[in-house]
Design a protein that fits this description.
Strand order of the largest sheet of chain B: 1-2-3
Number of domains of chain A: 2
Structural class of chain A: alpha+beta
Number of strands of chain A: 19
Helix content of chain A: 25-40%
Oligomer: heterodimer
Radius of gyration of chain B: 23 Å
CATH superfamily of the largest domain in chain A: DD-peptidase/beta-lactamase superfamily
Number of helices of chain B: 17
Number of strands of chain B: 3
CATH architecture of the largest domain in chain A: 3-Layer(aba) Sandwich
Distance between the termini of chain B: 27 Å
Order of helices and strands of chain B: HHHHEEEHHHHHHHHHHHHH
Chain lengths: 605, 422
């Protein structure tokens, strides 16, 4: 080989080396990196989404509560090219000046997600017709229809919850990648809990588009398209009649009413006050109302039925009696002395004047504090216990089975568990086992550390109504009730003991603290409570169920800072029961109804 | 006709086959990028219909070449060169402006780009001059004339405003290297380019500081040898002077938009919406092809017209998207086989004219191939030169065909040539 022929080899080598460089770079671009495949998809594929109607919500009698009204969003698709955009024509179409269009475009671009940004929300149907007609000239925009919530009965806002635009956090948490920006999702209450049931399945058609945003043929022949499926109807256990009635009763007061059907655990009514109307949180009203309600000092956004905890007060005595009977430390005829209260050294728990208690039933009827203070001693300090911890834990195990101090697990969120302290709590304060019943005596009469939500109180009424068990209270009804709501929770208290306390509760309504609110023809069992409130006036409490045999409704009412249980909570409960069982349009006790409707009770702190 | 005393050789089938297959794949790519998914119909108003005409014209011209006297081009190489240079001058006054460059003659609805054909003229002239028995590549005078043959068209084409087509002629350095050009000149050339790029990238000041420090470090090791020391600092001084010249030229002479364009070319500036838009779209199309591609006529970027100038300069994106890495590699391998074959043909020529001409063809094709594919994947600056046999357009296809077919003609006749190699 000559010198110059060597050079031909060099030239061939150069050619091969450069070709290898090209091939290597191509391998990186095409096989290793997936950036370009993603970019290609977002550039050339446009998803046309079809939003199905959200499911209706109907009450236990088939009455429609929530339905839909069409609402339209104008969305812009990215990449958006200003070059091919006839701005003045677009301004005319949407009826805005170019400054506003520009501002909205910037805002939409900032909030874009999956190649889409919302240009204009909740277009009225009049504007919709006009815009729809001219929109074909602006293929980078499209109108997406979705349904806004409307309320045939403007009630139960906290229970129903509301629907609103999905937040960024929710989008990031969306593991199945179902939602897109600008889409709506159940934010609270049943709308949130049963979101997948109510939303249906949105339809999706993928189209190829060109560089001017024009739609061409179906992407991969429509292989990835999804057909829309309408949201399912959600039947719930609420009774519109008493829910509406309860909200009227509670108007102007602070507190909550919860009513449950004992035989099923279905919640018949859940009233919280002060509240708001669900319509205030429809898509088009939400933004103007939300912040005002959030700032409102009376906290109308809180669902007090599940999210506020109160001492149960004397209503708890019913359960103390049941535990005592089951433990065998008392018989139905046990009596304890009451000298205007319970006295132990310097400790005094006062009691109101009443005739001496001849038996357990009478102690419930008269709500004798001394009886229950003594009973607590008997329960906690039995001979079989080595120390106070054993005794306390034995007592607490009953409360655990009643679902106290824990979330019941109903089908709306925001439940607060209430409070039943562990033995360790008192060990910490007094030293390990260096305390006795006297240190925690307040709990025997439903005060002190003991805290319950109104839902838990209503559920306790249901336990007594059922004579010893409950179903987790819930709203869902119909075929799709999950198994967890069909599971019977036993309290471990024999049925015969219930007969004793039920008799006592019945006497409360006949001769006792609730006598003046009895309803002719309905055999009610109830128990008043007046919970001391360190922050102000006493809370007025009442639990009840009716009728005495084969109960149809169990109910609890809390009226904050209202004084005696008998004055406010009891009449409200009985009015609710009357309405539910008789379904009369006119109450037999119009004076009572009037008083409840029209009284306002301010919270005094 | 010079009937051979050693008999007639045959046309090289391998080259012809590679040519035909590349043209066929190129046509498929143009069909895809200009056609969409509608059904095929033979419509000569479409891009692919026109390309079909150009293919027919090219093959006809190729056939005519085989009927002509093989000595014709060697004898008339200088006049042919002269004619093309005159055309390059004329087009500046009579031409039509397209994309900011006045480099097209319009005759009715046809447009011809003399710069494409000038490659042919320069290849002939260069082959003729270098192969001349009197030419001595070591003589300064001959070096100057050789440089002149290459630089004249470059200057003329750059004056038209088509820098990219002008740069192609620098590829003839490969020919000169094969024919004995001193390696020193190549090294100087490469170092100059490196200094120019580094100056633009890091600035004049940063570069001289680096160079001086480098010089000082080397000096510290060789401080006893004054001769090396003197040469070292002399070279450094020249480098610094050159860098300053580049810096001045870049910042003072060039307009801002030209500076930007160069910076984007060198990858110093990222600009997906402006100058880098084409490259970005090109990378998306190619990169989304994956291993096996989206399938012929199934490219979403190709169908959606996302890549600007796809049927001309960015035709490779259609291959990359629809046939993936495997398809791209196959095309590259076909080109490499063609190049190696041309190199093989060149070395088997007995006539020096034929050999030099063959290397001219190789260097032009290789430069186009390398820069064109390189720019679609952001490895080379976007200078707007076509991919041989693929890109849409009559001028380029005819020009490349003529270049290659004359080589085949010369090769077929090689047995009749007198050996003039040494």
């Amino acid at each position: 080989m000559t010198y110059n022929q060597n050079r031909s080899t060099v030239i061939r080598l150069i050619i091969v080396v450069f070709a290898l460089i090209l091939i290597t770079k191509l391998f990186y671009l095409q096989v290793i990196s997936d950036t370009y495949a993603k970019k290609s998809r977002s550039l050339s594929v446009r998803t046309v989404t079809e939003f199905p109607d959200r499911g209706l919500i109907i009450d236990r009698n088939g009455e429609i509560i929530v339905f839909n009204e069409d609402a339209y969003n104008l969305v812009v698709h990215y990449p958006f090219s200003e070059k091919k955009f006839n701005k003045s024509g677009f301004c005319d179409l949407v009826g805005m000046d170019s400054v506003e269009v520009e501002e909205r475009l910037i805002k939409a671009k900032k909030s874009q997600y999956n190649g889409k940004g919302v240009f204009m929300k909740n277009i009225t149907s009049a504007d919709f017709a006009r815009i729809q007609e001219g929109l074909f000239q602006f293929q980078q925009f499209s109108i997406e229809a979705r349904s806004d919530r409307k309320y045939k009965h403007n009630i139960a806002a906290h229970t129903l919850g509301y629907v609103a635009e999905i937040s960024r956090t929710e989008l990031e948490r969306d593991a199945e990648d179902y939602y897109d920006i600008g889409e709506y999702i159940g934010k609270s209450g049943l709308e949130k809990y049963y979101e997948t049931h109510l939303r249906g399945i949105k339809g999706r058609q993928l189209y190829l588009r060109d560089n001017a945003g024009r739609l061409k043929e179906r992407y991969v022949g429509g292989a990835n398209d999804v057909e829309a499926k309408i949201g399912e109807v959600l039947p719930i256990s609420l009774d519109v009649l008493i829910q509406e009635y309860g909200e009227k009763l509670m108007a102007g007061k602070t507190g909550s009413i919860v009513a449950i059907e004992p035989s099923s655990g279905e919640i018949l009514a859940m009233v919280t006050s002060p509240g708001y109307k669900p319509e205030m949180f429809s898509m088009k009203n939400l933004s103007k109302n939300y912040n005002a309600l959030l700032r409102d000092k009376s906290k109308p956004l809180i669902n007090r039925a599940v999210n506020s905890n109160y001492p149960p007060g004397s209503t708890f005595k019913v359960f103390m009696a049941l535990i005592g009977l089951q433990e065998g430390v008392i018989t139905p005829n046990t009596r304890f002395r009451c000298n205007g209260g319970f006295h132990l050294g310097s400790l005094t728990v006062r009691c109101h004047g009443h005739a001496p208690s001849p038996n357990v039933g009478y102690s419930i009827q008269t709500s004798c504090n001394a009886f229950y203070c003594n009973l607590y001693r008997e329960i906690l300090h039995q001979d079989r216990f080595e120390n106070i911890e054993d005794g306390y834990n034995n007592w607490k195990s009953y409360l655990d089975r009643m679902g106290l101090g824990q979330k019941l697990g109903t089908d709306i969120s925001a439940e607060k568990p209430g409070n039943v302290p562990k033995a360790e709590h008192f060990h910490r304060i007094h030293g390990k086992n260096r305390w006795n019943y006297a240190r925690i005596i307040s709990m025997s009469i439903g005060q002190g550390e003991l805290l319950l939500s109104p839902l838990q109180m209503a559920n306790m009424a249901a336990m007594v109504a059922n004579r010893g068990y409950y179903y987790t209270p819930h709203f869902i009804k119909g075929d799709s009730v999950p198994a967890m709501f069909k599971e019977k929770h036993e309290l471990g208290i024999e049925q015969k003991h219930f007969d004793v306390v039920v008799d006592g509760m019945n006497k409360v309504m006949l001769q006792g603290t609730g006598a003046y609110v009895k309803i002719p023809g309905i055999d009610i069992c109830g128990k008043t409570g007046t919970a001391q409130n360190p922050h102000g006036e006493n809370h007025s409490l009442f639990i009840a169920f009716a009728p005495k045999d084969n109960p149809k409704i169990a109910i609890a009412t809390v009226v904050e800072n209202a004084g005696y249980g008998a004055t406010w909570a009891a009449p409200m409960c009985t009015l609710m029961i009357e309405k539910y069982l008789n379904r009369d349009t006119v109450s037999q006790r119009p004076f009572l109804e009037e008083k409840m409707f029209n009284t306002e009770i301010k919270i005094v702190k | 006709m010079s009937e051979g005393i050693y008999g007639q050789s045959k046309i090289d089938g391998i080259t012809l086959f590679l040519y035909l297959i590349l043209v066929a794949i190129g046509f498929m790519a143009i069909f895809s990028s200009s056609h969409g998914a509608e059904s095929f119909s033979l419509d000569f108003g479409t891009k692919y219909g026109k390309q079909l005409i150009w293919i027919a014209v090219s093959l006809t011209i190729g056939a005519v070449l085989f009927l002509m006297d093989v000595r014709f081009f060697e004898v008339f190489s200088y006049p042919i060169f002269a004619i093309f240079m005159v055309l390059l001058v004329l087009v500046m006054f009579l031409g039509t402006e397209v994309n900011g460059a006045r480099s097209w003659f319009s005759i009715g609805s046809f447009r011809l780009q003399p710069a494409e054909f000038a490659k042919f003229g320069v290849a002939l002239a260069l082959a003729r001059y270098v192969s001349d028995i009197d030419t001595d590549m070591k003589s300064r005078r001959y070096q100057m004339i050789t440089a002149g043959i290459i630089l004249l068209p470059i200057v003329l084409i750059i004056l038209q405003g088509d820098a990219g087509s002008g740069l192609v002629f620098f590829s003839f350095v490969m020919v000169l290297y094969r024919e004995g050009l001193s390696g020193t000149i190549l090294v100087i050339g490469i170092v100059s380019i490196a200094i120019a790029v580094l100056t633009i990238a890091f600035g004049f000041v940063a570069l001289i500081i680096t160079l001086v420090i480098l010089g000082a470090i080397i000096s510290a090791f060789v401080y006893t040898n004054t001769r090396i020391l003197r040469n070292l600092w002399l070279i450094l001084a020249i480098c610094i002077g050159f860098s300053k010249a580049v810096d001045f030229g870049f910042t003072r002479v060039l307009q801002i938009h030209q500076q930007k364009r160069i910076q984007v070319m060198l990858g110093l500036l990222d600009d997906p919406q402006g100058l880098g838009y084409n490259v970005n779209q090109s990378k998306i199309a190619i990169g989304s092809g994956g291993l096996l591609g989206k399938g012929y006529l199934q490219g979403t970027q190709t169908k959606g017209d996302f890549v600007p100038e796809q049927h001309t300069d960015f035709i490779f994106t259609s291959i990359g998207e629809e046939f993936g890495w495997v398809g791209s590699t196959v095309v590259i391998i076909l080109f490499v086989l063609l190049f190696l074959r041309i190199s093989f043909l060149a070395e088997r020529q007995r006539s020096k004219f034929s050999r030099v001409y063959a290397y001219c063809v190789l260097s032009i094709l290789f430069f186009h191939f390398l820069i064109n594919i390189g720019m679609t994947i952001n490895l080379a600056p976007v200078i707007g030169i076509p991919l041989p046999f693929f890109s849409y357009g009559g001028s380029s296809l005819i020009s490349f065909t003529v270049l290659l077919f004359l080589l085949l003609r010369l090769d077929a006749n090689r047995e009749n040539e007198l050996a003039s190699d040494y």
